[in-house]
Amino acid sequence: MKLITAVIKPHRLDDVKDALQAFGVHGLTVTEASGYGRQRGHTEVYRGAEYTVDLVPKVRIEILVEDEDAEQLIDVVVKAARTGKIGDGKVWSVPVDTAVRVRTGERGPDAL
Amino acid sequence: MPDGFSAGDTAFVFICAALVMLMTPGLAFFYGGMVRVKSTLNMLVMSFISLAIVSVLWVLYGYSLAFGPDAGAGLIGNLDFLGMRGIGLNDLTGTIPVTAFSAFQLMFAIITPALISGAVADRTKFAAWGLFVALWVTVVYFPVAHWVFFFDGGNGGWLGDRNGVIDFAGGTAVHINAGVAGLALCLVLGKRIGFKKDPMRPHSLPLVMLGSGLLWFGWFGFNAGSALAANGVAGMAFINTQVATAAAVLGWLAYERIKHGAFTTLGAASGAVAGLVAITPACGSVSPLGSIAIGVIAGVACAAAVSLKYKLGYDDSLDVVGVHLVGGVIGSLLIGVFATGHVGQTAQGLLYGGGFEQLGKQAMGVVAVGAYSFVLSWLLAVAIQKTIGFRVSEEVEVSGIDQAEHAESAYDFTAVGASVARPVSTPAPVTATARKTEVDA
């Protein structure tokens, strides 16, 4: 199994969700996140005092999938999240040892 | 009622008094939105407490000190009206009952110390603040109100009645007075932890806009009501208030766009307050065109002045100096330039053939009130600092005054593990938990 994590622009969340549903993903976890990449943040002005806001709002999506679906799923997420502008985010995957469905105790792929 | 009583004027002044009362909670929102989340409630209640303290003191002795018969040299009223005894239901101030006049003036006394609180936001002990308000109105506001607002046929206050300093609705008595006191206080208390290093962004600009809107609305009572009659002077003061404020918004925004590249919301709200402050002393003596000039000048000058604190190194948290002191000085001095002699006053300014005479008088008023207020405010602040302490501990300042001083917090941001059904005797430890949305469990 693989854990796919995507940090994307908040306004792309709905498109990514729709794309994942169309692909057949049954579940995901969404977390409000903040951070920056190479583009850094932005500047705000309050009564002439300029503040550099480094951390910009992002959304973090986590999805557990079977190994054979991982590569294709990453492509689905990237395609749905892309705007072509700076700050679009990152997607990565890591191997997962175990997954358990809490309600039934099912393990491995059955738990997904 | 006796001869000379006007029901129309009286009704007008009561409504104006109620409008001015609303300015203090309006100010609380204006200031409250500008501080960080952790000290929102403290900022709101620092204004609100002024309603409570000053109202009681006003009846006990404030009205008498400010508007009692002069006790000598136009410096302070006598004690004839302690507890507001000796004021009959039929006694008049002009065409309105003394009680109506007293209620109207009370609202001025309430908002003036509340204005000061913006200078010391985020770091003031609430009890010390309450004590300061009580002492400050007693030794600074009540006497200065007597100097400026008490008219008694040449035997009244030394600035207004005896020397012809024009302050229609409180440029010197309210705004310069509060602005200078704010400067004295932030010099005594020192800078906030993290000043010039940490971002101290306003936590809610919508609250700031709500507050500035309420201030603008209430200010019609402040300025038009100062005619103490529903007449043409009140009408002109009303128009002047509106147009100067509008011009100041435009002036502030133009300055910001050129200097910082954006028209900010906080700039629009601040420009409105700067314009209101500047037109306050002048609204009864200038024309609407003069008001536009005063508004634009105040908007630009106050926008430039708020950065003074970064250059000079004093931490006036919410720019009481930059907006109220600078705006008040501009409005008071410009009377000496733009007074037409045909509105509510006969004195003429520089541009209307009056020469430098009125400008000189206005400067005297600015310097006298400014110097008196600075010295007394500084002494009071030092005295409180050395006795009960004026500033909260470093720990409280960093974690936020709301929890430590008021046992409350303005907003509940906890989404996980924040059950309200379970009463606790001691506050539960707060952990930063990111909000999670389970789309499919």
Automatic annotation (TrEMBL), chain A:
Keyword Transcription belongs to the record: yes
GO biological process, any: regulation of nitrogen utilization
Gene Ontology cellular-component terms listed: cytosol
Any one GO molecular-function label of the UniProt entry: ATP binding
This protein's UniProt keywords: Nucleotide-binding, Phosphoprotein, Transcription, Transcription regulation
Keyword Phosphoprotein on entry: yes
InterPro entries registered for this protein in UniProt: N-reg_PII (IPR002187), N-reg_PII-like_a/b (IPR011322), N-reg_PII/ATP_PRibTrfase_C (IPR015867), N-reg_PII_urydylation_site (IPR002332)
Pfam families linked: P-II
Tree of life domain: Bacteria
Listed SUPFAM superfamilies: GlnB-like
Modified-residue entries (O-UMP-tyrosine), positions: 51
Quaternary structure, from the entry: Homotrimer.
PANTHER family recorded: NITROGEN REGULATORY PROTEIN P-II, NITROGEN REGULATORY PROTEIN P-II HOMOLOG
Protein name: Nitrogen regulatory protein P-II
From TrEMBL, chain B:
Residues passing through the membrane, by range: 12-31, 43-61, 94-116, 128-149, 169-190, 202-222, 228-255, 262-282, 288-308, 320-343, 363-384
Keywords: Ammonia transport, Cell membrane, Membrane, Transmembrane, Transmembrane helix, Transport
Keyword Nucleus in record: no
Location of this chain's protein in the cell: Cell membrane
Domain Ammonium transporter AmtB-like: start-end pairs: 11-411
Membrane topology: Multi-pass membrane protein
SUPFAM superfamilies: Ammonium transporter
GO cellular component terms listed in the entry, alphabetical order: plasma membrane
Record-level Gene Ontology MF annotations: ammonium channel activity
Subunit and interaction comment: Homotrimer.
Function: Involved in the uptake of ammonium/ammonia (NH(4)(+)/NH(3)).
Family: Belongs to the ammonia transporter channel (TC 1.A.11.2) family.
NCBIfam families linked: amt
Name of the molecule in the record: Ammonium transporter
Gene source species: Kitasatospora camelliae
Lineage: Bacteria, Bacillati, Actinomycetota, Actinomycetes, Kitasatosporales
